[in-house]
Amino acid sequence: MTAPTAPALLPNPKDVRDLIEGLIGKDVTVGTGEPISLNDKPAVAVYVDPQLNTTALTLVDVPLAAWCAGAFALLPKGGLEDAIDEGELSDMHLEVLYEVVNVMAALFNGGGITHSKLYKLYAPGEALPGDIAGLAAAFNRIDLTVDVAGYGKGSLSIVLAH
What is the C-alpha to C-alpha distance for residues 28 and 136, in angstroms, rounded to an integer? Predict the structure, then answer.
C-alpha cells in the first residue's frame, strides 16, 4: 500500500529563480509581478497527474519566453527582439521553451506530492480548451517578473488547479 499524496504547493520565487538560473546558466532575478492575462497571448504549459487531471499551469509572456529560449540556446538578442516585437515565437524558440517548461515540472514535484508532468505547451495565441482558459484566471497562483541577465525581463504566472 502506498501513502496518499498531497497536491503541489505554489513554489516560492527563490525556487523559481534557482531552477531557471540552473537551467539556462545565466543570472536570473525574480520578483513579484502582475498576473498574466490570456489577452496578452502568453505561452501556456499544462501539467497533469498520472490520471491526466490538470494540476498546474505556467503562463509565460512572449518576452520571457524569448529571453529564456535565447539564454538556453545561446541565440543572439536581435532575433529575439524581432520575435517579441511581432508577438510570435519561431518553432525553434518554442522547442527551447518546451524544454524550459518541461524542467519546471520539478517545481510541482517532491516527496509526498502527487507527481505532475508536462502534458502540453500551447504557443502564444494558440486556442486553449475552455477548462484551461478558465483555470488561467484562478486565484491559487504566484505572479512573477523574471529578468534574465544579458537578455531582458518578462512575466511568469504559475497557477495551481486546486
Answer: 25
157 bridge partner residues? 59, 143
- Dist CA 66 CA 61 (whole Å): 9
What tens digit of pLDDT does each residue of 8-64 get?
889 999 999 999 999 999 999 999 999 999 999 999 999 999 999 999 999 999 999
H runs (alpha helix) in 25-106? 62-73, 77-86, 91-103
Q: pTM, whole model, 2 decimals?
A: 0.94
Rounded to 10 deg, the angle between the 77-86 and 62-73 helix axes is 160
**How far is residue 145's CA from residue 154's CA, in Å, rounded to a whole number?**
6
Looking at residue 14, its amino acid is K
User: HSE of 50 in the Cβ direction (CA atoms, 13 Å)?
Assistant: 5
In 3D, which of 128, 119, 100, 162 has the Cα closest to residue 39?
Answer: 128
d(CA 72, CA 77): 12
